[in-house]
């Protein structure tokens, strides 16, 4: 039986084919992982030449990390964790309840709601900056200003159209017979949602968890609108201010960039299995 590669070509065999595959995989590894390794190496190299990077440093040092701590990089990192923790928890909560309502319930105007949710994904952040800043300065009904607080960075990311659409489409694929069977056994609305529908959505939760984490973690425009004091900066925003400081060396910036990259990588590794299952679940149906 002849195996085929992802490109539809027959898989070659023999020593030269193995050598070719090794060279190809090594080249792909260097293209995608090389810059990340160079970043990590530069962050822990005592003297960094901004024009030269190496994957194999002469010696490693924590000098850059100590200078970064003196520049309050860990405080900025903590702010980022607080924002992404609160924002992602609210975003997942809103997504699963909104997805359940749109996928499992019939009500007039459901299609219009989906179109509106989709429309929010079409607007760039620059267009939303002015109305968002006005809303955060005077929250409707409550008349409370969220400017100058981490809460102002959490509330706007509580609902994301992408996560809602992913949960809606995934919940539509769950057989209604399971829900009807649970109702015949006396299960109420919340029990059906919590014990029947939601456990089957773990792959989708992995998808929205990774994408939501990355979206919130990389936010730059929102902290720029909300923060009024450097103590409120998140790490991506703090990197901008550190770069504009002439007294900050390139090593401190590399440490900040490395700390900004590491949580996203760890989040993907932690949710990798659910993420891949969520992406491939639609391909194996039917």
Automatic annotation (TrEMBL):
Q: Does the record carry Transmembrane as a key word?
A: yes
Whether Cell cycle counts among this entry's keywords is no
Q: What is its main location?
A: membrane
Q: Which InterPro entries does the record associate with it? A: MetI-like, MetI-like_sf
The UniProt similarity line reads: Belongs to the binding-protein-dependent transport system permease family.
Q: Where is the ABC transmembrane type-1 domain?
A: 77-271
Q: List keywords of the entry alphabetically.
A: Cell membrane, Membrane, Transmembrane, Transmembrane helix, Transport
Q: Give the residue spans that cross the bilayer.
A: 22-44, 81-103, 110-134, 146-171, 192-217, 248-271
Record localization: Cell membrane
Spell out the protein name for this chain.
Carbohydrate ABC transporter permease
Superkingdom of the source species: Bacteria
**How does the entry describe its membrane topology?**
Multi-pass membrane protein
Pfam families (alphabetical): BPD_transp_1
């Amino acid at each position: 039986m002849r195996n085929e590669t992802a490109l539809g070509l027959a898989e070659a065999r023999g020593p030269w084919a193995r050598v070719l595959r090794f060279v190809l995989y090594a080249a792909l590894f260097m293209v995608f992982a090389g810059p990340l390794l160079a970043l990590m190496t530069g962050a822990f190299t005592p003297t960094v030449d901004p024009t030269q990077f190496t994957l194999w440093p002469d010696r490693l040092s924590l000098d850059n990390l100590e200078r970064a701590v003196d520049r309050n990089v860990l405080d900025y990192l903590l702010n980022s964790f607080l924002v992404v923790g609160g924002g992602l928890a609210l975003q997942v909560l809103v997504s699963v309840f909104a997805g359940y309502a749109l996928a499992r319930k019939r009500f007039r105007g459901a299609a219009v709601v989906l179109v509106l949710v989709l429309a929010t994904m079409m607007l760039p952040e620059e267009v939303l900056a002015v109305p968002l800043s006005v809303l955060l300065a005077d929250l409707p009904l409550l008349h409370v200003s969220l400017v100058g607080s981490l809460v102002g960075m959490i509330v706007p990311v509580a609902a994301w159209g992408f996560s809602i659409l992913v949960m809606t489409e995934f919940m539509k694929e769950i057989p209604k017979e399971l829900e009807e069977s649970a109702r015949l056994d006396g299960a109420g609305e919340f029990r059906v949602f919590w014990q029947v529908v939601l456990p089957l959505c773990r792959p989708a939760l992995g998808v929205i968890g990774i994408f939501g984490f990355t979206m919130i973690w990389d936010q730059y425009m929102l902290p720029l609108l909300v923060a009024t004091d450097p103590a409120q900066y998140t790490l991506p925003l703090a990197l901008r201010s550190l770069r504009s400081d002439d007294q900050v060396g390139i090593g401190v910036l590399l440490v900040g960039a490395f700390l900004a990259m590491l949580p996203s990588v760890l989040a993907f590794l932690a949710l990798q299995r659910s993420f891949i299952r969520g992406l491939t679940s639609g391909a194996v149906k039917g």
